[in-house]
Design brief:
globular; two-stranded antiparallel ribbon; 3% strand; 10 helices; 279 residues
Length: 279
């Protein structure tokens, strides 16, 4: 099992980095579109849709994805960015307002509303992957690293100090101490970026200029907190469907959603904030 997990991780990492740094914008957008569509397939299995309902949902998802990719290729850059901002704003409302209420009240909507919520989760993530990569591969990696650092720090802090369960009915392994550890790890990451930006130009140095450094670190902490919401929502959806993993697409790792759950709640908000700040 460990060998399979390691092999899958290495293969996925090589493909991801190769696409991120060497693919053309059109090919990258198609690559992450395939990821979003795979996520739609997995999400359809978690919503309680019938087999016919899943087929209809996937056909609609494919049509929507094709329309989005066509818009990216053929529309003006300004038009795509405007449409993208709307999608990112909808995502922000969902993750800041709707998802926390959803989890807190343990409310599970009917299959089709739950399925449509998957579009709010996944399509803005596709937009964010495209928008952030256009600002530079290292910018996208720096934002994604917020999630990875928060996750690793939360894991070790939770193992060492975890006592108070965060959401025992949804994810029994998570604790409040783990969350605090994750936030501390991200704060240190932000401070390290700020200090490094003062000694050498970095792809993210603009975000850590003297007047903006504290705001950038605070924004990183908000993203780290929201990454927990993304993780919990996907865990809650899996529990409602009686599944341990969203699928078996990635041997040893589960499915696409299992790997990008926290990114779906962070990348869109990061892309929205960066896009608005640049205007």
């Amino acid at each position: 099992m460990l060998r399979t997990r390691v092999i899958t991780a290495v293969v996925v990492l090589l493909i991801l980095l190769g696409m991120l740094f060497f693919a053309s914008p059109a090919v990258w957008s198609l690559f992450v579109l395939a990821i979003a569509l795979a996520g739609c397939w997995e999400w359809s299995r978690l919503c309680g849709l019938s087999s016919t309902g899943q087929a209809i949902f996937l056909l609609l998802s494919g049509a929507l994805g094709g329309a989005g990719w066509t818009l990216y290729l053929r529309a003006t850059e300004e038009t795509f960015h405007t449409v993208g901002l709307v999608a990112l704003a909808v995502s922000a409302v969902f993750w800041i307002v709707v998802a926390p209420l959803w989890l807190r009240n343990k409310w599970r909507p009917a299959p089709w509303p739950a399925a449509f919520a998957g579009w709010v989760v996944l399509w803005p993530t596709w937009v964010a992957f495209v928008e952030l990569r256009e600002r530079g591969p290292w910018v996208l990696l720096a934002v994604a690293a917020i999630v990875w650092i928060a996750d690793v720090a939360a894991y070790f802090a939770g193992r060492k100090f975890g006592k108070r369960k965060l959401a025992p009915a949804v994810s029994p392994g998570k604790s409040w101490e783990g969350v605090y550890g994750g936030l501390a790890g991200v704060a240190l990451y932000g401070i390290a970026l700020a200090l490094a930006s003062r000694t050498a130009p970095l792809p993210v140095s603009t975000f850590f200029e003297p007047a903006a450094g504290i705001v950038a670190i605070l924004a990183m902490l908000v993203l780290a907190a929201l990454s927990v919401v993304g993780d919990l929502l996907e865990s809650w959806m899996k529990r409602g469907a009686g599944r341990k993993d969203s699928s078996r697409l990635l041997p040893g790792h589960g499915g696409i959603l299992d790997r990008i759950d926290a990114l779906t709640s962070t990348l869109p908000l990061a892309a929205l904030g960066i896009s608005l700040a640049a205007r």
